[in-house]
Amino acid sequence: MMRKLFLYLLVPLLALLAACDLEKDIDVELPNHEPQLVVECYLEQGKYIRASVLESSGYFEDPAPPMVPDAEVYITTPAGKRIELKYKPVIVKSTGRFYTHTSTEILSGQPGQTYQLEVVDGKGRRVTGFTKIQPRVPIEEVEWKFNDEEEAYLLTSFQDDANTANYYRYMTHIDSLSGGSDRDFVTSDDLTNGKRVSLGSSYKYREGDTLIVTLYHIEKQYYDFLASISDAKSANGNPFAQPSQINSSVEGGFGIFTNLAYDRKSVVITK
User: Fold this and answer.
1) Could you give all domains of the chain from N- to C-terminal order, each with its CATH number?
2) What's the pLDDT score for residue 5?
3) Residues 85/51, Cβ–Cβ less than 8 Å
4) Is the distance from CB of 121 to CB of 68 less than 8 angstroms?
5) pLDDT band at residue 230 under the 50/70/90 scheme
6) Contacts of 107 by beta carbon, 8 Å cutoff, 6+ apart
7) How many angstroms separate the CA atoms of 242 and 169, rounded?
8) DSSP H helical ranges for 143-218
9) Distance between CA 192 and CA 67 in Å, rounded?
10) pTM, whole model, 2 decimals?
11) How confident is the model at residue 10 (pLDDT cuts 50, 70, 90)?
């Protein structure tokens, strides 16, 4: 009996001593971070051309990316006209977006036309990109239905064009575009080519809710960019997820240059 008791006490003691030997301090040498230009530029029909030019920072540096005041931003039109965007940091109140550069001209592009972006700075860095203006896809119908708990689901329908490969971004906001979106996802017509598409929600809305519904017809490069951001967010802090790289659409740095072609409707949920 004494021998068994000794063994019962000895096993946990050995495990404890072994665990103590497993703790070691390891110095990890991180490679030096080479700052790169980070660019976001969205062309929107009938509006000023705006861009945000920042600089990437290291993992342990200030999380707010530094601005680049000496960056020069140019947009070249299909006719070869070169438009310069002036450095003028601003936050657009209607959307809450921050931009560093703005044009003095209004965009008047047509579907199928291609625009070019060029960004250069005092360090000799150069970022370029291209975007082709997409046609607007109209929202045909926005409807909703209540359940027994007085909650409503939302259903948004539109017609997909069978002659082209199409990509979409669907967003809903409650009351205002300046706050965070209530719903935001991207989809393609791989399984719905040429069909009438309906995008729905769960039962989550109440009578009197004001919803702003937006359907973006986007380029594949913007679809890949948004999908990679979603994957990166999912992998952040998850030890079982594989690290995800952001799919940029620009050369010479990071970021996205694209155009925003969309249809938007505002509805009030009623019975």
Assistant:
1) 37-132 (2.60.40.10), 139-241+262-268 (2.60.40)
2) 40
3) yes
4) yes
5) confident
6) 43, 44, 45, 46, 47, 48, 49
7) 25
8) none
9) 42
10) 0.82
11) very low
